[in-house]
Amino acid sequence: MVDARIPAGELADKWNNYKKDSKLVSPGNRKKLDVIVVGTGLAGASCAASLADLGYKVKTFCFQDSSRRAHSVAAQGGINAAKDYKNDGDSIFRMFKDTIKGGDFRSREANVYRLAECSASVIDQAVAQGVPFAREYGGYLATRSFGGVQVSRTFYARGQTGQQLLLGTYQALMRQVGAGKVTCATRHEMLDLVVVDGKAKGIIVRDLQTGAIERHAANAVVLATGGYGKVYNLSTLAMGCNSSAIWRAHKKGAYMSGVSWIQFHPTCLPQSGEHQSKLTLMSESLRNDARIWVPLKAGDERKPNDIPEAERDYYLERRYPAFGNLSPRDIASRAAKERIDAGCGVGPMKNAVYLDMLKAIKEQGKDKITEKYGNLFGMYEKIIGINAYQEPMQISPAAHFTMGGLWVDYELMTTIPGLFALGEANFSDHGANRLGANSLLQSSVDGYFIAPLTIPNYLSDELKAPKIGTDHPAFDEAEKHVREQLQLFLKAKGTLSVDYFHKELGKLLYDKCGLSRSKKSLEEAITAIKELKQKFSTELKITGDDKINSELEKAGRVSDYLELGELMCYDALEREESCGAHFREEYQTKDGEALRNDDDFCFVSAWEWKGKDIPQELHKEPLVFEAVELTVRSYK
């Protein structure tokens, strides 16, 4: 059993109780302590800027050429906060309850309440940085709804919210760089974590511009490297997104949690052929005004505008009347797949459904819709070649967000002391399904308001510990392991590219551990992945050398994906229930909804690496619900 170290007291008092009792580092001592932050998206950059502003010495690392290219820019629709500007009944507790329910009661109460509690401060922070949120005519910040809620709590900057928030965070980071408090290393990839006497003390990185292997030591390490949805190959994630930082930390002792909880986004552009390497996300915010439907009759070849109302199936409105087109993502994605599998799919590959804005345009006017979603309409026409002001968009579910990640306690510290995980790199806030617009929120809250208060609690004791330098034997061992791994890839004499293995793994996982899973499909996937891993070790071909070599970079990432994909299937196989995005076909109600098993599976899985080809050990963190009642999750 793992200890989340949740503070005592009533739910609403826990965060204040923690801050009241946590240890501090005096301003004069902060400059003696070094912190490494890996990943400079919204969570990493905000944490680095905040810690540097407090006086700590910070080094950041990212594989992009600029923090501005972090995948946080891809979050389009908005960021949630319980400010209740619409006076429609929102509150911190309602937001907390919506989030717990949205995750199908598989997240930790204390962490989720803190997320809602800190949400209002994030909006104030962003406004102070100049983030251009949409405003009402009178000047007040505008809000809209997102899936899984019945209030308007989502603040937005058209369809560019993630980009605008990241620019605000980027300027905060660059201010600290200019002040000499942060050192930024771009085009560097973390290849291993260095652990000394059980504590995280540094990292091994590779300079992607020269191939040089570097050592960096610190008193604490923060991983803010995003999610691992790219394990499916075709996903909404950027091409460079990967799992290597958290997976290498996992193999050094950090537990992984909820790894099979993968969210498929319901409003993505459908796959158009085998040539694609990624999929394009269309913001969930469109569902505020759109109606989603398919032809009532399977195999209907008519153009959408030629199909009359009586011959359309608005399946979300039919199945979930209370929430309709704003049903949570996991439910909306499964409902779309069910209609597609029933033969009602549309588009050239019959793998999509319609997202129809024509009624909203008629009622509100084209100018109003353009004001809210104009860049999305432009992006759609540029990619698909169809004017969505005149014809419905075609959308399809796609692998998107990973609720799983490194297990962390209340302080966002992993099972390795001194190693912290923020944002999508950890598992902490979303349970088995994330509500839309909570991703930008969690990243910001973790980086601005939680880690800068919890990391000092750990660092206060590090002042008394001996300073560990890069000449320590643990750095020698870690670097040796990294170099051996790279040479192993380069020496491979096979005939198959890295992309071949990535595509094969992605197909396996999508078919057998995707929107739905079964005991049979998961067992088949585990057997097939083991075979694919063996084939990877003998049939891989890497061209080039150990200098500038993108194929070598990809080989390391896909090698990690193969191991991670296997654990995903074991995690899904072990959890004999359906909850949130984890839909086991054997466990569903008579009308096809997820069927939880709270008696046996009301816990967070935490997997411990035991060695190559050795089954991982499952630890369980029981989930205790005191503020909300465990009820059937219904949006009908």
TrEMBL record:
GO biological process: anaerobic respiration
Cofactor dependency: FAD
EC assignment: 1.3.5.1
Membrane-topology annotation of the record: Peripheral membrane protein
Organism domain of life: Bacteria
MF terms (GO), sorted A to Z: electron transfer activity; flavin adenine dinucleotide binding; succinate dehydrogenase (quinone) activity
Keyword Coiled coil belongs to the record: no
Positions of the FAD-dependent oxidoreductase 2 FAD-binding domain: 34-440
Family matches, as NCBIfam families: PRK07573.1, sdhA_Bsu
Name of the protein this chain belongs to: succinate dehydrogenase
